[in-house]
Amino acid sequence: MIRIKILDCTLRDGGYINKWKFGKKAIGNILFNIAKSNTDIIECGFLSDKPYDKERSIFSSVEQLNSFIKRDSDSQTMYVAMIAIGEKELDPSRLDDAEQGPLDGIRLTFHPDCIDKAFKWAEIIMSKGYKLFMQPVGTTNYTDKQFLDLLERVNELKPYAFYIVDTLGVMYKKDLLRQVILVDNNLAPAIKLGYHSHNNLQLAFSNAQALAEYKTDREVIIDCSANGIGRGAGNLCSELFMDYLNKNHSAHYDVLPVLEIVEQYLAPIYIDNPWGYSSAYFLSAANNCHPNYSSYLMAKHTLSMPAIGNILEQLPRESRRFFDKRLIEGIYQSYQANAVDDMKTVGALRKEWDGKSILVLAPGRSITEKKELILDYVKQNSPYIISVNFIPDYINSDLVFVGNGRRCRELADELDVKKTVFTSNIKNLPEGATVVNYSELINASCDASDSSGIMILKLLIKASVQSAALAGYDGFSASSRGNYFDIRLSGIYDPQSLREKNLAAKQQLDMLSEKLKIKFITPSVYESEDCGEQ
Questions:
Q1: Do residue 296 and residue 380 come from a single domain?
Q2: How confident is the model over 126-176, as pLDDT tens digits?
Q3: Residue 216: is it exposed, middle or buried by C-beta count within 10 angstroms (0-12/13-18/19+)?
Q4: Domain around 385
Q5: Is the pTM of this model over 0.85?
Q6: Three-class DSSP category at 399
Q7: In whole angstroms, what is the distance from residue 374 CA to residue 317 CA?
């Protein structure tokens, strides 16, 4: 019968969700519980040359990592860490010898252009007594010849294990088994076969089962994480695969300690930083590209799923494996742009707004929480009211500014075309719509390039408006679900993205305030110098 081992990568791959900041106590308890579940191999985190933070599962020395491992005398659990060449790397010459502590092995991951460096480092790691796991990034991107050449070098090296790695989560069963057969027939018998999956197509579990049923005398290692925690669509769920092996392969894993980890440590993380399958991650897999491209476009909250798919199709083939923020932003803006001659439109707006007090309403939560404050301002100043991407329910807008195609579709049945201004990126507008040039209103920063709340201010400046009062410009808080007056407007962001959006928006507002006198009627993080820490 196949000999299967489970490797849990919760503290390493799961760290992409929370920047590895599980907390010192949590790291120790997670390691303890995973060992208690009889997991065969536990990955403790990354080894990196970055400064050490005891609250994170990234270590700058083996000594720091070893301090977290509490091994029972009769425990058969193996402990490993990862060195990622080009991402989070630590020169192996700095490693303590393996015999000096409980860390048993090193997982070495590398891209095709770093193969020579990887084999050089691999020899150093093995010379220090560590079990070596060779893990090429994205084996699906290797040609058969490249893959076989790599296996030949691996056979000469004789590591503990060699991995098939589905970095982009694109493998179907037939794709996996094809590479498994290539490895099984060309890898030295003593070398273990590993498999690391991602769940973009929701196939991590079924593919793991297919590998478990594959007939071979070779020992197989299958990676998983508690609740599937991992970047983007996440990984194979430890608890699911443990239960499967218990029921189908006479294994003896204890699932309850893993569920305790999920309940105590991972569920709170998931609330603000969810992971798992989504339509956008399917699109990234379908287009064989890095999942961060999909998550970046999702965070815009301006695009339909077909639009995201259309943009991903425009990515150059050679650029799909690695995330390039500038590249995807450029393609996004080109997709959105639809230049129009808006000189007459801007002239008409200039005439309409001339001499008026302007109040701009954005859809922040304060729109409802500070309702009385806003109504009092309106009563005292009788302003011309512009609402951005929404229609207020307690006050009449003189104009609705719509700079977001997704919001436009949601408002389609409510909008009065005669009292609405659209940006030119929005497709299929009704006849007679008033349209302004999108490309002239977007911003230089990727993180706030098409913020409608900022675009309307640029339009005010373009129309020679001198000052404006703002309400609902709250900025983003750590809990993304509380960022809008209507939860249906909320989207999924990670805290770092929210901080970057706040900082980018504040920088834009600061620059615009040199041309437009801005007054915040409701509280806003953009009034604070440290808005990026909100």
A1: no
A2: 999 999 999 999 999 999 999 999 999 999 999 999 999 999 999 999 999
A3: middle
A4: 343-533
A5: no
A6: strand
A7: 51
